[in-house]
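Folds abound. Consider this:
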Amino acid sequence: MGNQNNNENNQIKNAKEKQLDEFKVDNQGKNLTTNQGLTMSQDEFSLKAGDRGPTLMEDFHFREKITHFDHERIPERVVHARGTGAHGEFQLYESMKEYTKAGFLQDPSIKTPIFVRFSTVAGFRGSADTVRDIRGFAVKFYTQEGNYDIVANNIPVFFIQDAIKFPDFVHAVKPEPDTEVPQASSAHDTFWDFVANNQESAHTVMWAMSDRAIPKSYRMMEGFGIHTFRFINESGKSTFFKVHFKPVLGVHSLVWDETQKIAGKDPDFNRKDLQEAINTGNYPEYEVGVQLLPEDKEFSLDFDILDPTKIWPEEDIPVKIIGKITLNKNVDNFFAEVEQVAFHPGHLVPGIDFTNDPLLQGRLFSYTDTQLTRLGGPNFHEIPINRSVVTVHNNQRDGHSRQTINTTNVSYHNNSLSNNTPKTLGEDQGGFANYQEKVEGNIVRSRSKSFEDHFSQAAMFYNSMSNVEKKHIIDAFKFELSKVNNKDIRQQIIDMFGNVNIDMMTQVAQYLGANLPKGEASKYNKVSPALSQENTIKKSDTLKVGIILSEGYNLDEFNTMIKALNVAKTMPEIIGCNLSPIKGSDGTSQLPKHSLLSADPVLFDAICVLGSGNVDPDFKMRAKMFIEETYKHFKPILVSQSMTMLLKPEMKDQPGVTVGDSKDKFTNKFITDISAHRHWDRNITI
């Protein structure tokens, strides 16, 4: 039985990779051909009537090459245009047979191939990675029952409750239509006007103003399914569920000043981080969890479980960890895989079904509709990255870019010519059938009264934050609203979010010179500790440590530091005054990866400075800048005893700052400081 499971596991694991291999082309050492396979003798000059004459229309090679170039770009996604992706696998920890008959959730020995795409929402494809925005976290499972997609975000709620408002929300958050600015930013009038007049957005706005909207890395970013779905087991019993992806490295964010600087220094910061981690074997891992609610408990909570602006607090409904996804392979071609991948919340397998969440219901139409335009027609499922590992059999035909060659004359169901095949299978034989939920009511355009509470969970989110996180939210409101030109909109927002927390918006109002919010202290006191990033896992693993070396460094000191950093599983990188080898006191040399001119402190998680103390003015100036910027962003700093002249005296006793007095002591403290990520109690006014 064990060998059988291993064989099946290997077949499933390799199925998608083998399928993609069929479409790969290696041009190394090959002759150049046209797209029709004609080998060409020349590819540098167009066909002309004489050396200086006009180009001839008969130059089929020129026409083919230019035409292909002119049509290389496809429409970018209206939302989630900016993104990256990777291949990986999902493995179950324990069978979920009690709750669902979904095949890939039965056997813990089976590994299911997956593809994951991370993205920002508002910006165009050329925008920066580190903007303040919600992040997409979409997962495609290539199961033996067909493709199953989870189209998630890193924030568990959304701005609207009904999909009919989705075009309005996107129009509002996109750049102002008269100027097409600002890019990838919600800090402008139309977005905040939408918020003020659609107060169901309050909860999501609180998340968007928090550190959750500026993740440090896709590898340190939580994912949430947002919508309520159903599990259905073999006996037909239904259980409501929500999906969570919890990063093994913990949930960590940048600080706002960093995000703006990184956007200029390295706009590809997050996508490069993901690619480099996979290339170095530091595979990103996320534990997969579900919150489960029996169907008979649907109305037992103080909110509507179908409301996409509400979370299920983890303290009330715990997250059951059921497996892990691991990303272990970068794409071979970004366009073919990342740009052409098509996700859809309606891609289901038996044992999983929808609920009546009105936002989800609209997405079930919209996702197919947008792929028709973006990917050229109804055959986007035949693009290699989107192909199911299950062979597709149906009587659909034709359409743009059809790749399947159907060999029978029958293109309809219920037939005699093909013995009524392909045939359907009953639910008891593995065929998909929708859950038979009883639905009744008048046909109306309205919202359920159970969706009318917009502020209780927004307040719970704020109540759950640490003091540092609360300050960041307040600062985010100050920044965003200071970019809003219309003072009436500013005041509407201050009054609206006064319903969330009066003290929070009092500080914002005072900063903006606006009227104080009306009302009294918040009546909402509930707290959910799981919402605070301060309560997340903290590790030193894969954090990037910049080691600034000067000429004459002590080799023993350097070796001790490198050894300790490697044991702590960090990623040390040497920074020199320039890219020339750096000589130590014993004559040995280290080759730097970066220079103080080309690197930047915002691109590192910690800084270590080692040297002899005998440095030139240029080194001293730039090294001081590195230290001061790192200090301002609350990140760990170590300076060896011989390099203390680079530190301001008042920095030396601050949290997360280490001055090397002995090899073992200062390296151990530095590693501990790195594991903490940030040192928020540091005085940054000095």
The radius of gyration is 28 Å. The mean pLDDT is 94. The chain is about 25% helix and 15% strand.
